[in-house]
Amino acid sequence: MASTKHTLRTPLSRVRGLGSARSGTSHFWHQRLTAVANVPLALAFIAIVVCATGSGYEEALALVRSPLVAILLLLFILSAAYHMRLGMQVIIEDYVHSGAKVAAVIANTFFAVLVAAAAVFAVLKITFGGM
Amino acid sequence: MAEANVPGTRPEDIRPLSPHLQIYRWTWTMAMSVAHRITGAALYVGSLLLVIWLLALASGPEAFETAQWFFGSFLGRLILFGYTWALLHHMLGGIRHFIWDVGLGFDAASRHTLARLTLIASAALTLLVWVIGYAVS
Question: Where are the transmembrane segments (chain B) (predicted)?
Answer without folding.
Answer: 34-56, 68-88, 114-136
